[in-house]
Amino acid sequence: MTLPPTLGEAAVAVLTTPAPVDKIALTHELARAWRAGALPVGDPVAPPARPARPEKPELRLPRDMPKRRAAGSAANRVALLHALAHIELNALDLALDLIARFGGDRPRDFYDDWLRVADEEATHHDLLAVRLAALGAAYGDLPAHDGLWQAAEATSHDLLARLAVVPLVLEARGLDVTPAMIASLEGAGDAEDAAVLRRIYQDEIGHVAIGRKWFDVVSAERGLAPEPTWQNLVRRHFKGRLKRPFNAEARAQAGLPPRLYEPLADGADAPPETLSA
Q1: What is the DSSP string of 251-272?
Q2: Which of 104, 149, 189, 198 has its CA 20 to 30 A from that of 44?
Q3: If residue 209 lies in a helix (H) or strand (E), which one and from where to where?
């Protein structure tokens, strides 16, 4: 597929590409073209309400998904890798949706950062697809949940809300749970899959840090204090409380101190909203 002539149009082209293998290839091509200076930002381009998807996997509500078990058997490892591959494909689309939906007049490093995220998420999906194939499986073989894109729809009206929920809640949650997944795989003697998750984990710390950076930038543009603004937006746009335990070390590396998220955690008192954001 030929890359469209502007960044916004190219981002939409990826979003409207249904086959994961084509979506991955086009994302890498887009990132290379941007880094080479071959793409202007162009005029804003409206992204689709939902990205194109293949016929499989079947999408279900999160509550209708079977619970994942420890990675002792090949079937359990397939279920884990499939779920992660789905998350990474959604994360790729979320980064490009953010560029198309909220870009247009941002500084170059905004696009540098979010194209880096998209490019790395594409690599993550590809790595997981290779590991699924090694286990005789493929993305689409199992059902998957639609929670990530529901969060995108709930925050499609506002860049600050999108940044508050997607990188700083949902991706930050990945920092909390991934070390236990790595340990489970290593305990099952699966060094190859553990190495892939370790690569993803390190990259995701950077992705959360990018989310924090741009949340602070946009908050400053609006004359808002970042931390109370984030807490207010999460209470408004994220259902439920943040789950313990937290990986405080990885969160701190990404710029998330405990004073930011602890007030919204399970078991913490929930003060009323005090800030309009």
Answers
A1: HHHTT--HHHHGGGBTTS--PP
A2: 149
A3: helix 191-221
Give the confidence band of 149 by pLDDT, cuts at 50, 70, 90: confident
How far is it, in rounded angstroms, from Cα 71 to Cα 156? 35
Q: Both tokens of residue 72?
A: 């002792």
Which amino acid appears at position 98 of this protein?
Answer: L
Burial of 191 (0-12, 13-18, 19+ CB in 10 A): exposed
List 242's β-bridge partners, or say none: 265
At residue 145, the 3 state secondary structure works out as strand
β-partners of residue 144 are: 59
Dist CA 273 CA 42 (whole Å) = 38
Is the alpha carbon torsion for 47, 17, 68, 175 positive or negative?
negative
Residue 247 to residue 258: CA distance in whole angstroms = 10
CB 106 within 8 A of CB 98: no
Token pair of 63 as six digits: 């509550």
Name the 3-class secondary structure at 217.
helix
Please give the sequence-ordered ranges of beta strands (E in DSSP) within the chain, or none if there are none.
59-60, 144-145
- Output DSSP code: residue 20: H
CA dihedral 258, 261, 267, 271 (to 10 degrees): 120
DSSP 69: -
Q: How far apart are CA 198 and CA 174, in angstroms?
A: 12
Token pair belonging to 193: 């899959």
The 10s digit of each residue's pLDDT in 236-269 is: 999 888 999 999 999 999 999 999 999 999 866 5
Place of tokens 């405080």: 248
**Does pTM top 0.85 for this prediction?**
yes
Q: Give the pLDDT confidence score for residue 275 in this predicted structure.
A: 29
